[in-house]
Amino acid sequence: MLKLKQRIAETLAETLASMTPEPVPAADELATLLEYPPNSNMGDLSLPCFRFAKVMRKAPKMIAEQIAATFTCQGVASVSAINGYLNFKIDPAYYATSVLPEILEKGADYGKLNIGEGKTVVLDYSSPNICKPFHIGHLGTTVIGHSIRLTHEFMGYNCIGINYLGDWGTQFGKLITAYRKWGSKEEVEKGGIDYLVDIYVRFHAEAENDPTLNDLARYEFHKMEEGDEENIALWNWFKEISLEEYEKTYRQLGITFDSYLGESFYTDKMPAQVQKLREMNLLKIDDGASIVDLEAYKLPPCLILKRDGSTLYPTRDIAAAVYRKETYDFDKCIYVTANQQSLHFAQWFKVVELMGYDWHDQLVHVPYGTISVEGVKLSTRHGNMLLLRDVFAAAIDKVSEIMATKSPDLPDRDKVAEEVGVGAVIFYYLLGGIGKDSSFVMSDALSFEGNTGPYAQYTYARTCSILDRAGEIGEGEIKLTAPEECELLKTLSRFSECVLRAMKEYEPSNITRYILDVAAAFNRFYHECPILSAESEEVKNTRLLLTKATNTVLGNALPLICLKTPRKI
Description:
54% of the residues lie in helices and 11% in strands. The protein is built from 21 helices and 13 strands. It has a four-stranded parallel β-sheet, with helices on both faces. Strands 1-3-2 form a three-stranded antiparallel β-sheet. Helix 11 crosses helix 12, helix 14 packs across helix 15 and helix 17 (453-470) runs antiparallel to helix 21 (537-557). The chain is globular and about 80 Å long.
């Protein structure tokens, strides 16, 4: 559809230019103005003419009518003017002779535009604090970040995924203190990361009555910063336990990273950036702490060093950004974190700019809404967690129960149950968009009715089943005989636009909603148009090709939101 939209836009640019001596939008801009009407009866594409009224000194209704009277373009069957809108009906032959053959020819490459060729994107996402298990709150940064990575890769970018582990800070002094007071090697080996969380929670409970514990924790972390061998050994041990646990979740999600360099890696890289700030006279002393004053930019001061000279998150983030630019020479560096950190990123992004780094505008923060559980805020230190592994396990168990009844003889049933169960949770989370806070309701996430991940995956599996039963598809002229066939092709034609929008907006829900559109269009087609029992071989072959095209598009789209594509469910 992108090609046809560009062709229409070029014709529109010529038509508008012939109607007025004043400058009119170029074809590329006009292409972005073309909309999909909410009702297909109005047309397949629409152009609002209101913005041309001032330049052309005519009413939008008159402009639309004047264009419609003479407009012709290959692939467009008709043009009508309604209340200032120019509505285009696409010739069904265009879908049959251009869209369907392109999908079938390109297959796994259908939808790719390669606009990122030769460019590198670094993505910082997931990035859990070690010694804490994945809870439902970690789902956001992990699947949003990975989907953003996948859409960029699909569009031709070279992507570097970084898991910037939270592996440094006073919290490790707290954990070491808790371990020495109440823990043992045997209990940690037996309980793993869950036991580490238990003693961490206990530390905070005890510290409410004994504030000296916090002083002790700061002392233990200071020893870590000074290189104390015993504390460093404990820290490395806790880190290994954490990574082993995290890899189980990443395997379920199908996610890998190119780097696990966490906060601790940048300990020796921060002094150079602090010195640069001093040399540029950007650092000011405020109540003993070193800050960068950002009042001129309507931002609070950015704290670089505490009173005792220790570093903070902005210091580490600046050092990490400089290292990543020097190492990867990125064109974009994307950070996927909760929206509560938006101010933090605005502050240190501004500091990077003030430091004279000309790549400051390549830094991108993608904020997402936080998750509560049934409306209750999550908190590790208070033990209020809904662990992601428990959510996945519940979803997998539910799928297994359904499959035991509906598909008792299905090979690899456990594997498919995991793919569908995990996919159900991911789809539920991504469907609503990333911008707003949300409340995770287990019963809703595990519902398999309506607009759900299982429905989308089942539609894909249905196309596989039809194609398997059909065997070899014959050749011949493509013949569209039902409106549902054309509507399906219209939906399939929008795939590359959908991925492009998702990539530019950093919004995976564009793809999630598109998948539902494809599934709905295919299932209407499936129920209204006999495929294997079609009235003729010509119609049968056309419908099988439509099924194959749907299989291709869903097969390309589902992995972009971290969902698997089981061939049988």
